[in-house]
Design a protein that fits this description.
314 residues; alpha/beta; Rossmann fold; 2 domains; five-stranded parallel sheet; four-stranded parallel sheet; 11 helices
Length: 314
Amino acid sequence: MPWTRRHLLTIEELSLDEIHQIHATATAFKKILGRSVKKVPALRGKTIVNLFLEPSTRTRMAFDMAAKRLSADVISLDGSSSSTTKGETLRDTAQNIEALQADMIVIRHSAAGSPLYLSKILGIPVINAGDGAHEHPSQGLLDTFTMREHLGSLKGRKVVILGDILFSRVARSNIHALTKLGANVTIVGPSTLVPEWFKALGVTVSHDLRSALADAEVVMLLRIQHERQTSGMFPSIGEYTNLFGLNKTRAGWLNPKAIIMHPGPINRGVEIDSELADGVNSVILQQVTNGIAIRMAILYLCSGGQPEQVIPSA
């Protein structure tokens, strides 16, 4: 079916076919990234504004690089360099960007729902690069893309997400994507960070790390989201590491071929030991690389491109 979506706001609203379309388009773009000339003119003449009002390294750089690989012009703004520091509203900032003839806005914001809000008042596509603790759709898409590269179909596969689920937008986007792709998802961590109500999303909730990791084919580590917590959700970082940090012993509870993932930034020695983060089962850096291809696909499709079209040569 043709791609008709102008905005990418959540994975929750995507159909299974749309997830497959994004993954298929990313596969084509990843081949281009392997060439000596890594550019195509798909978005030549377009201007994309990255409006990042929260700190970011991987996501911001990946969107920047993805746009440039598509030959778009890119302008990046952060909170310290925008007029929001002077009291300007998000609405005024975004409408000024549109008035300056931008063709698309990629936004990261601390307020859940801010991309949806902008999509209703702007006439240009809006891409959600993370909104509060709500969703991070491009991350969920690149994570599942990486899993499919290693495992093929995710139907019936056991995927464990370990860590701060409650405050994680990455966890929510991955849960929506994985359940649509047919995976069996277990979320695990302290009861304060993994509440029972997540069962309503179609996942298994566990607070027993050993049983959760048993036979897992994928384990995704999440860092503690200190910036989104209003009070301590566990006694100390040391206690969290002692109970739920992934070390060599606990990694032995996994399927021997299980892949280890992390959306970053990694707190080494807290949620995961360096030996595992850098080990043969880790695909953490592959996630980063795949983030470029996935974001190329998102920018291309939401700009009006179609998955079945032949991607023009450089």
